[in-house]
Amino acid sequence: MHGKSIILLLLVFLIFGPASVHAQVAVSAQLRTRGEYRDGQGTPSVRDTVPAAFVSQRTRVNLRYTGHRFTFYTTIQDVRVWGQDASSINRINTDAYDGLMLHEAWGEISLVDTGKVVKHFTLKIGRQELVYDDVRLLGNLDWLQQGRRHDAALVKFEHHGWTAHLGAGYNQNAERKSNTIYNGTPSGYAASTNGMATLYKSMQFLYVGRKLPFGNASFLFFKDDFSKFHFAPADTLAKTPLYERGTWSRYTVGGNLFGTVRKRVTLAATAFFQGGKYRDGTSLQEYLFSLSALYAVNKKFSVGPGVDLTSGNNGDDPSKKYQRFDPLYGTPHKFWGYMDYFYVADGFGANGLTDLYIKSKLVANPRLTCMADVHYFTLPDKVHGEDGRWMDRYLGTEIDFTAQYALSNIIQLEGGYSAMLASTTLTSPKVKNVKHADRSANWAYIMIALRPAWTNL
């Protein structure tokens, strides 16, 4: 759907939608502009590399139309870097996957006519965000200006503290008269957090959550299926995949527990196992464990430690080729350091990660919140260097500072600074593979977001 058609559809809803006596229309928007300074963000820079600086902007218009037993919702967004368009025209072909796009477009239909027996039982279908728990495995990746969404159908049941969601998606490249082979396009973009460079052909998941007296518990089973492929016998260099019928299926199963103990200590525990087949057919046996605590010293200041452990490949044992846990379609920026060295598009080899961290939060006043985190990164398993010797498992230390200030209910200001002190192991060929690396990296940003909203138009 072209941008003009989308805007026209919005106008039609705004003009004719309120005509219904029982309908409600809500329109909201977001203008988020972020300036960044990057000197080794994501991966160490080569020594004497000139740092990068740029301004990116996300513009969103959201429309919610609610009537009897249904809700329609759509988000139109445009993502740009200042200056990447000519000042008098708009580009036709975009790089970096930016531009005007349909971020969300879904309808939700109530499957019951009253909430007296079942509070919430609906079918939600269309392009939508999947946001669950702490967004570690399923999230909207909101830090990325483009965000993340899925084309899916979702049955939602919520009643008496229980939540059960059953979802599924099925992807194809285009309308066809025959054949169901899917090549995972876009092939040049890291569709998942581990840079798998392909999108699933289909997926199914079950999420069950339960409210407890002290917090929440949840269970997730997620299966994503990837098209099988092979290489032509003569293709020894390019390795261009030739897709075929059938899929390799990967499944991720586990749960979360969040709770508050004695009103001052907040605990979070996560455990997941990953099995099945990788997208190239290799058997998987992977895991993720996380445990953290946050202690409220007083009403304004809280601090606490945590540890994350994800499995990685064992290069000395060929039978364990794929033990590298993939945190699916979550928001890694929230967990493994704001400089995005791990589980983002840059990658860090076939390794797992041990992250020991301390996080703190200061609510100076109702408008101002400051946070400071320290991450100590290591490899869970030893890795051989180029000389055949074992390398130190220590990867580096990252320090993150952020501050958020609410100028008003609509205007939000945010800024941050991060520094990474990298080790030779981090820059080695088995991890980041950067020769002549500058092992001291810096990153800073400043962001302003406007979020106006109008209801009952």
Q: On the 0-100 scale, what is the average pLDDT?
A: 88
CA-based gyration radius: 23 Å
Terminal residue distance: 26 Å
Query: What oligomerization state is this entry in?
Result: single chain
Q: Domains counted in the coordinates: how many? A: 1
Q: Extract low-pLDDT stretches.
A: none
Highest CATH level, the class: Mainly Beta
Helical stretch tally: 2
Tell me the β content.
over 45%
Number of strands: 19
CATH architecture assignment name: Beta Barrel
Domain Alginate export: 26-414
Pfam family, one: Alginate_exp
Protein name: Alginate export family protein
Keywords: Signal
Describe the structure.
Residues 1-23 form the signal peptide. This is Alginate export family protein. Residues 26-414 form the Alginate export domain. Helix content is 4%, strand content 51%. The chain is mainly beta and 457 residues long. The chain has a single domain (25-455), classed as Porin (Beta Barrel), CATH 2.40.160.
